[in-house]
Amino acid sequence: MASAFTMTMSSVTTGNTAEETTHTKHSLFSDVIVIIGILALIGAIAVMLPDIDKAVGPHGIPSTISTDPGNLPYYAMRSVLRMFIALAFSLLFTVIYGLAAARSRRLGAILIPLLDILQSVPILGFLSATISLWLVLFPGSILGVEAASIFAIFTSQAWNMTFSFHRSLLSEPAELDEAAKILRLSHWQRFWKLDMPNAMIPLLWNCMMSVGGGWFFLTASEMISVNNHTYALPGIGSYVAEASQHRQLGNIGWAILTMIIVVVLIDFCLWKPLTAWAEKFRITSSGSVMQRRSLVLTIIRQSHLNDVLASLCRPVGDGLDMVTRSLGRTGSRWRVHSTRSRIGDLAFGTVITIAIAIGILAWIDSIRRGTGLDEIWHVLGLGLLTFLRVMLLTIVCSIIWVPIGASIGMNPHLSRIFQPLIQVLSSFPANFTFPLVTLWFIAWHIDINWGTMLLMSLGTQWYILFNVIAGASSIPDDLQEMTHSFRLSGWQRWSKLILPAVFGSWCTGGITAAGGAWNASIVSETVAYGHTTLTATGLGSYIAASTASGNMSKTLLGVTIMALFVVIVNRIFWHPLENLAERRFSLTS
């Protein structure tokens, strides 16, 4: 007996030792891979930094770049760096703006309509208004144009992320909100224990969509043409613009191939690991049928990177926790006495009304002195044409992508197959193909007034698809299993669970898709290849032409009318639907 027991314990010890040895080897291998990756990232940034802050030469800021295909790897790195710097600022803006709008009733009444306006302002509007400011802030340096480009990419990313985060804050499960109050969490603790985990899945999908939107407007962000000036930055977007102008189809093909490689690498190294990691934030009491996997995430988990980051960030987190505890315990909203609330609302509303009235009077005076008030009716007519395109585009994309997105989001097997393909397609800048599409329109005699809808859809349909996938991915497994237990038919399952569950996500996707379509009209209603230019009748082409010529009065009028259309549609249509989604179709009670 003793001998058998000794042999058993010896085999167990040997097995444990073998497992520990294997784990140590995997850990060492993973540490080496992670260190190599970090050093490669630092080295790439170090290579690019000297050129980013390079002094302007004697001939001023360049208006052209080389179209040598050998420069494409470097151009791609510059574009990726701009994209993720803008994404970092977009995340910071999303958190601050979304929290302020969700936690304060008065601020929310101003910030959300303001967000409607911001998402409706086209990139060219931001560029024409801010390019001089960036050049003044960084005189004699290319950094001024770099800052303008990053800011332009930021304006194509931040708004849909903020809408998504704000909606997640308002739709937090009531029982988790009560638990946060009972546990007397500080605002810092609530943010990391409830707010961010609850918002993580839809926010992550909107980050992917934001990067895709940034790629779509990359050409306008790197080849900046405003106020009769053109500023060209080294990048893959400006490369395509330059190659298109010189009718270099071969170089455009190389740029498209480079872009595909970049998108696939970003998906493999970033989005696939993040979506697999975010699965732990799903609200469910049972495990998913099929877990998402990622080789990169596995290597990171086997390495000591998590331990190093935790040790570095823990003192900062503890310090912020101590600071925020002085603000009191957490709560979903701050409460005030009704009398004080009414007086405060009246004063707040009065100040806002006066400010709006002053702004409207100043705008009317500027238009009267610039273009004349009769121009307003002309621009309103152009805005109506673009509005009809946006409305039809939103309806068609919703009919196509809501059932597809819901099916993908609820089925981990389908998600593993189609998610990489969707991310590649959505991240690929569709306007890179605009020169080829222009040739197709010319060859087939397709009217650009109809063809522009196809061009707009290439960059905006993904907002609806991504949000619906994120909403369907967040449906608790318990509810899905319940529909099978009750033997619901396919239509009953869709009408009782799936469509109500993704309704709020569709609203968020619809708002951002419509806003993105308005923005995309700037680059879709006017397309060119070489000396051939096709121009559709609409508000987007009006703004593009006035911005390029430096007519600030017409640009201001066009941007204002576009913002007016977007805000009115959101107020009349989208926000009532969002309120319905929050009231009837959320997990809160």
From TrEMBL:
Protein name as annotated: Sulfonate ABC transporter permease
GO annotation, cellular component aspect: plasma membrane
InterPro entries found in the cross-reference section: MetI-like, MetI-like_sf
Principal subcellular localisation of the protein: membrane
Keyword tags: Membrane, Transmembrane, Transmembrane helix, Transport
Organism, as annotated: Bifidobacterium aquikefiri
Record bears the keyword Glycoprotein: no
Protein's membrane topology: Multi-pass membrane protein
Family: Belongs to the binding-protein-dependent transport system permease family.
PANTHER family the record matches: BINDING-PROTEIN-DEPENDENT TRANSPORT SYSTEMS INNER MEMBRANE COMPONENT
Compartments in which it is found: Cell membrane; Membrane
Domain called ABC transmembrane type-1: residue spans: 76-270, 387-573
Gene Ontology biological process terms from the UniProt entry: transmembrane transport
Residue intervals passing through the bilayer: 28-49, 80-100, 107-127, 133-154, 199-218, 252-271, 343-364, 376-404, 424-446, 452-476, 497-520, 556-574
